[in-house]
Design goal:
Elements lengths: L9 H9 L7 E5 L6 H14 L4 E5 L1 H5 L1 H7 L5 E3 L4 H9 L3 H7 L3 E2 L1 H5 L42
Parallel strand pairs: 1-2, 2-3
Antiparallel strand pairs: 3-4
Length: 157
């Protein structure tokens, strides 16, 4: 088990993830902006500690552009998505051998592929009408509030 380091929201992330009452097999983290970089690493650390056997991936602008730095700063990710993640993530979920798929797919960056200078390819969605609308009926929106980690306006509910 990895010992948690001191970080602004690490305790919050750890408490939130450790209290999940179900087992996760694939965990995806999105990081669109560099301001979320440390939080992405902290969430990955908490996820790896709580679900050591889960496949842990990340995507978004940050992993696409600074994957070498991420692999240098963290050993918790199995792979990082290169470009749009909708199709690669779907293919990962559908794969019989998920770790083998990550190794073979040109849309997923593994530490080994990055170290060996392999090239990566985008798996673009050419027709946006192929993306189904989100089914918000499965969400209990009354339980959603402003995230206290990103705003000073959050308070007790």
């Amino acid at each position: 088990m990895v010992i948690l380091q001191e970080a602004p929201f690490l305790e919050f992330f750890n408490d939130s993830i450790a209290n999940l009452d179900y087992e996760l097999t694939i965990i995806g983290i999105s990081s669109l902006f560099t301001s979320s970089y440390q939080s992405m690493l902290d969430i990955a650390l908490c996820c790896r500690n709580t679900f050591p056997d889960a496949i842990l991936v990340a995507g978004g602008g940050v992993p696409t552009n600074i994957y070498l730095q991420i692999f240098q700063d963290s050993t918790n990710f199995d792979a990082l998505c290169y470009g749009e993640g909708e199709k690669p993530l779907l293919h990962l979920v559908q794969a019989d051998n998920k770790l083998q798929y990550l190794k073979e797919s040109k849309s997923w960056i593994t530490k080994d592929k990055a170290i060996h200078g392999e090239s990566f390819d985008y798996d673009f969605i050419e027709n946006l009408d192929e993306i189904p609308f989100s089914d918000y009926d499965i969400l209990n929106t009354d339980e959603y509030g402003i995230n206290p980690t990103t705003t000073t306006y959050a308070g007790p509910r």
